[in-house]
Amino acid sequence: MISKLLIAVEDAHFMDVTEDFIDRLHPETSVQVKVFHAIEPDEATTASPIEECRQQAAALVDSTCKRLRKRFPNLKIQGCFVEGLAKQAIVEEATSWGADLILMGPYGKLGADKLLLGSVAQSVLPNSPCSVVLLRAQKTMHTAPSTATFDQQRASN
Predict the structure, then answer these.
(1) What H or E segment, with its residue span, contains residue 74?
(2) Is residue 115 a contact partner of residue 106, using CB atoms and an 8 Å limit?
(3) In whole angstroms, what is the distance from residue 76 CA to residue 59 CA?
(4) SS3 for 84-108, per residue?
(5) Which of 17, 33, 47, 100 is most buried (CB neighbours < 10 A)?
(6) Does pTM surpass 0.90?
(7) What is the pLDDT along the chain (157 residues), one digit of tens a residue?
(8) Contact at 8 Å (CB) between 60 and 45?
C-alpha cells in the first residue's frame, strides 16, 4: 500500500497523465502527496535571477497542488521546492520524507525530447529509496482530414 507519494515536477506538461495514474491507484484518504520541484543551479541567469526562479517554482508547485486538490479532495497534498541538483534533491527528499513511490516525467528534457529518458530520471532510478514510475505524455493522435473537409477544400479551388 502506498502511504506517501512524491511527485517530482519540472513543469505542468505531465499533469494529465499524473492525475490519471493517481486515479488508477485508487488512493485511500490517508495517502499523503508531496509535489516537489528542484531549482537547478543553472536556471538562475542574468536574464532570470534566482528570485524570479523561486517565484516561478512556488507558482508551479502551488498550481499543481491546487489542481490535484481539486481532482482528489480527500488526499493530503502539500508542496515544496528546493534549490539544488534535481537528481540529488529528489532522492534526498524521497529518503528523508519516507516516500513509498516517486512519480516523475523525463525530468530535464525539453520539447520533443520529453519522450526520452532525461539524465535526472536516469540518476533517480538506481538511487531511489523506493519505487519510481516514469510517466510519459500522451501521444497526440494525428487523424486524416474528414471527407467533408476534403470535399470543402476541393470545392473552394
Answers:
(1) none
(2) yes
(3) 19
(4) CCHHHHHHHHHHHHCCCEEEECCCC
(5) 33
(6) no
(7) 899 999 999 988 889 999 999 999 988 888 999 999 999 887 767 667 888 999 999 999 999 999 999 999 999 999 999 999 999 999 999 999 999 999 998 765 444 444 445 688 889 999 999 999 998 766 544 444 433 333 333 333 3
(8) no
